[in-house]
Amino acid sequence: MHLRKDHAELNIPALRQFIRSNPLGLLTTAITSPSSSFPLLQSTHIPFILDVDDESSQTELGRLRGHMARQNPQSKALVEALGDPSSPRPGSNVLAQDVLIVFTSPVQHYITTNFYSETMSGDKKTAPTWNYSAVQVYGRARIHYDADAPATADFLMKQLADLSRMGETGIMGYSGAEAWTVADAPSSYVERSRRYIIGLEISMHRLEGKVKMSQELKPRDREGVVRGLKALRTETAEKMAVLVEERAALKLRPRVDAIES
């Protein structure tokens, strides 16, 4: 990720919150297939659970949990790589290569130079751009793929329960009997479904965030961006205008607020 000083988000708790606010990540792998059955690069959108041992920590990155369909070609490439006799650790369930996961905010918008009242009235040394925010994770993945192993069953059942809880209560706001749980489905259906997926547990060793919200602009140009976005009267433009104002305010005080979600 290209991180210029104005756009870099260095606050680890803020980056963790961004992931929780935008849990649908894009998992990308680069695996050399020993059988040449799969492409080198593969990506899948996966909703992730973030586990952190110490929520008050300013430095802990945490671990990501997710699952994929066993029939997904990327899943097949992962399992094949783990069983490759030529791999550094044949038979291990930890992938030798790093994986990349990208989390992106749904609030993004084109920024026209017509918004720049100060620069465009002078030397005009500027160009249109795009405002957005994203987080990139690099880590080592442990793959839970042995459907008959008790540890795999335990991991997947916890993953499914935690993910449904996050969606039902954290996203939908349901509580009590309103919230769907894994226990609401027939046990035979759950067991059959569990055998059709594999689990992912990713230990993060690098966490980067970028918040590109017109922070680098001159004050009058940034004010023009806010006015211009609000004048569009669309939901996305209104949200972007608010984020531009919030990020501008952060330049004037210590960066302790959470990254925009």
From TrEMBL:
<dbReference type="Pfam" id="PF04299">
    <property type="entry name" value="FMN_bind_2"/>
</dbReference>
<dbReference type="InterPro" id="IPR007396">
    <property type="entry name" value="TR_PAI2-type"/>
</dbReference>
<dbReference type="InterPro" id="IPR012349">
    <property type="entry name" value="Split_barrel_FMN-bd"/>
</dbReference>
<protein>
    <recommendedName>
        <fullName>Transcriptional regulator</fullName>
    </recommendedName>
</protein>
